[in-house]
């Protein structure tokens, strides 16, 4: 646990291949809450847990090519995904395009869905007591984009590269420790 997690936070050991920098060190006064769910009884229903979350979670690193004022207005988060998780966030709101890129409306983020799930998976491997709720939303909300997002998520799920929980019910904490509970927000999702 701790050694693997520490390796994730060492410069050069992060997720640069997915368009994000290594997690920034926590700021003075911030506490590392990577394991807060370890204190929850495994029999607790997820419906009974208040999950700290972020809106438009991947907007900390917006894509280039947009006016600075537009980017500033679109940025909802100032901390990268790994830092959000270290600070105790357990609900991520990921807005995805048909091509798998993450976005906020028309403004692209410098991270794709697979990169975000890589970060989540690495965090959970280092913190197996934790559970992540990840909402994947088709941002365009058209028939074509919904099909593309559904196809992408099915491909990701079938790859078994990520510890996804895909059942249509809310489990107990113990059933999904170390897993990503995927919340599908697109037409005819999974």
Structural class: alpha/beta
The major pleated sheet works out as: 5 strands, parallel
* DSSP helix fraction: 25-40%
Low-pLDDT segments: 1-21
What proportion strand? 15-25%
Rg over CA atoms: 16 Å
Structure summary, number of beta strands: 7
Mean pLDDT: 87
The dominant shape is globular
- H/E element order: HEHHEEEHEHEHE
| Tally of contiguous helical segments | 6
- The strand line-up of the biggest sheet is 1-2-5-7-6
Separation, N- and C-terminal Cα atoms: 32 Å
In short:
29% of the residues lie in helices and 18% in strands.
Q: How would you describe the overall organization of this protein?
A:
The chain is of the alpha/beta class and 190 residues long. It contains six helices and seven strands; from the N terminus they run αβααβββαβαβαβ. The strands form two sheets. A five-stranded parallel sheet has the order 1-2-5-7-6. Strands 3-4 form a two-stranded antiparallel sheet. Strand 6, helix 6 and strand 7 form a beta-alpha-beta unit. Helix 1 runs antiparallel to helix 4.
